[in-house]
Specification:
By secondary structure, the chain is α+β, with helices and mostly antiparallel strands. It has 5 helices and 12 strands. The strands form 2 sheets. Strands 1-2-3-7-6-5-4 form a 7-stranded mixed beta sheet, with helices on both faces. It has a 5-stranded antiparallel beta sheet with strand order 11-10-9-8-12. Helix 2 packs across helix 4 and helix 2 crosses helix 5. The longest helix is centred in the C-terminal third of the chain and has 17 residues. It is globular, with a radius of gyration of 18 Å. 37% of the residues are buried.
Amino acid sequence: MFPQTSANHTPTAPFVILSSVESTNNYAMAKLHVGMVDHGFCFLALEQSAGRGQRGKQWLSKPGENITMSSVFAPEMKSPSQLFTFPFLLSASMALGCYDFIKDLGISAVSIKWPNDLYIGDRKAGGILIENNYKGDAWHRSVVGTGVNINQVDFSEAAGKPVSLKMVTGKQYDVVKLGKKLFAHLLKRYETIDGSTMKEYNGLLYRKGEEVRMKKDNIVFTARIDHVSESGELVTAGPVERRFKVGEVEFV
């Protein structure tokens, strides 16, 4: 049985384990709005009834089998020449933290699919959803939701072709213990955001240098992945360089 606290318990420590919530991002954002949490808090839920992924998609996870957690970060603590100039550095650093976490478990063939999905081979192992909190027009705090498939081996058809760490290694993991390890990696990457962040990110970019099929609106086309800019645009190479913003295109 996992250690747990009630989902309506007032947080008293930076790493809080919740038995069940609708969404860890919703929960963290609600606590943030009323001033109950700040930079460095993390909420890990053993069950999410309405987990969310990017672009309004659901994040489906069997209770107790995967990491579903949200961490709070304070962009205003970083130098304006970093995050405030290129906000995508937060997304890139969080993806690198997830990469470090998976690699630290001895798993190879790990890459980052733009903008911040984690892949093992050609299958998705995790994803990130970042939501921001503002004071007036100023970027105040960010809630970083991270979902990583740990022990689940049976997925619904709607999930596509996911992969879990157990499917790769054959090992059963302690989800709470791994959640704390992932949080430590995220904190370390956040604290070390600098000019090398995008270089590392691009060095791990999924399908970099390869021709891929992409879709924009109802048009499917082929493009060669070159790199991701500091502003978060996907840059493709060819007779004419093209740039795409997050959410503008999708892989098919």
